[in-house]
Amino acid sequence: MKKDWHSIKGDIIGGLTAAVVALPLALAFGIASGAGAVAGLYASFFGGLVAAIFGGCGVQITGPTGAMTAVLVSIVSTYGVEGMFLAGALAGLLQILAGFLRTGKLVRYLPQPVIAGFTNGVAILFFMTAIDDALATLSITLITVLVLVISLKFFKKIPESLFGLLVGLLVNELFIHSPHVVGDLPFAIPRLTLGSMPFATIGELISPAFTIFLLGSISALLSAEVTDKMLGVQHDSNRELIGQGLGNLVSSLIGGVPVTGAVARSGINVHSGGRTRLSGILHSIFLLLMVLVFAPVVRRIPLASLAAILMVASVRTADWKSIKLLPRARWTYGAIMIITTILTVVIDLAVAVIVGVILSAIVALFDLSHLPEGKDSGGKISLHGPLLFVGIEKLKERIKSHSREEDLVLDFSNVSHIDESGALALQELLSAEAGKGKKLYIGGLREKPLRVLERMGIVDKLSKSGVILIQERGEL
C-alpha cells in the first residue's frame, strides 16, 4: 500500500510539474501556429489526455511542440486553420493505421544524420516563427531571454519557461505596458470542426498530412526512447502510434493543433516522479484547472515573452552534438545532415527525410560495395562479412587478380549472410569464370547462406557450371 501511494504521489507531482511547464508552451505554440492560444490549450488538454490514456509509453507527455508548430505555420498560411484541422485529422488516421500495421519500430532505423538534419531544420523554422512577436516588444523579449538563461544556469529546479513568463508579465504590467498580449481566451466547451473542414481540398492536404504524420510519429517515438532509457523500461511503439493518432484525431476534431510526444516535458515528468500513465492524464487535468482559475492572468501575458520562450527552446532543440561531430565524421555524414536541414527549412520535412534516407542508402550501398573484406593468399580468397549484390564487383576484381590457370578456393567461413540479389550475381560471376577453364571451389558455407543458395537453385546451377562446393562432411 505504501509503495502504491509513493507511485501515485510521484505521478501527481510529475503531472503537476509537467502542466506548469506546458502552460506557457501551449499558449506560445498555439499563437505561433496561427491557430490561436485556445487551439494550443485544447491540444494539450484533450489531445494530450487521449494520448496518455491510449498510448504505449506510460510517462509520455503529449501536446503542441516547437517542431510541429514550425510545420503548421506554412499549412495555416496556405490552407487556413480549417485546412490544418483536416490535415491533423488525416495525420491521426495515418498514425492509427501505422500502429495497427506494426510499423512503430521502423523509426529506430532512420539514419542518424537524417534525424539530426531534420531536428536542426525544425529548430531553425521554430526560431523563425517567433521573430515578429519578438521584435514587436524587443525590450520584453531581451528581458525574458536573460531570465530564461539565468534560470537554466542557476535555478534548475524552477521551470525556466514559467519563470520567464512571470517576469515578462510583471515587467510589462509595471513598466512597459505593451498592448501585444495574449488577449481574451474564448475558452468554452469545444465544438466539432468537422463541418468547417475543407474536404474539397483533401487531395492537396495529403502531403501536409503526411508531413504531420511523419514528424509527429518520429518525435513521439524518439521521446519514448529517451524516457525508456531514463526508467529502464520498454514502451510499446505500435500502441504509442495508435495513442498519438487518436490524440491528433480528437485534437483536430475539436479545434486543437496537432500534437506529439514532447521530449522535454516527458523528461520533466520522469524527473519529478512520474512513473505511470496517470501522470500524463493528470498533466492534462491540472492544465485545464490552471487555465480556468488563472484566465485573467493568462490573457495579460505579453507575446514577446512567449516569443522569447520559443526562441530559447528552439536553440535548445537543435542537435548540437551532431554539429560538433562534423569535424570528426566522414564528409558524407555532414553532407546528408546539411542537405536534410536545408530541405526541411526551404521545402518540406517529409521531402527532407525522404531525400536524406535515399542519400544515406546510396552511401550505405557504396560502403557495402567494398564488402566482403578478407585476405587473399595463393589460390585462396577468404571472405568476411555479408555478401550483397553490391559486393560482387569487388569479388570479381579479386578473382581477376589471380592467375587464370590456377585453381581457386573461395572461403565462405566468415560470410554471415547472402541476399537473393547477391546469390544471383555470385552465380553469374562464378559460372562465367568456370567457363573460362578455371577450377573454382567454394568452402565453409554456413547454414543460412547455404539455405539461400539452395532455395534460389544456385547450388545446382553452380554444380552444372563446374564450380565445386565443399562442406565439412564432403563434397556437395
Tell me what you see in this structure.
The protein has 476 residues and is mainly α. Helix 2 runs antiparallel to helix 9 (237-253) and helix 7 runs antiparallel to helix 12. It contains 19 helices and 8 strands. The chain has 2 domains: 2-327, no CATH class; 376-475, Transcription Regulator spoIIAA (2-Layer Sandwich). The protein has helices spanning 2-33, 37-54, 66-100, 112-129, 131-136, 138-154, 160-176, 202-231, 237-253, 263-271, 277-298, 303-317, 320-325, 331-346, 349-368, 392-400, 420-434, 447-455, 458-465, and strands spanning 62-63, 260-261, 376-377, 380-384, 408-414, 440-443, 468-471, 474-475. The strands form 2 sheets. It has a 6-stranded mixed beta sheet with strand order 3-4-5-6-7-8, with helices on one face. A two-stranded antiparallel sheet has the order 1-2. 67% of the residues lie in helices and 6% in strands. 48% of the residues are buried. The protein is elongated.
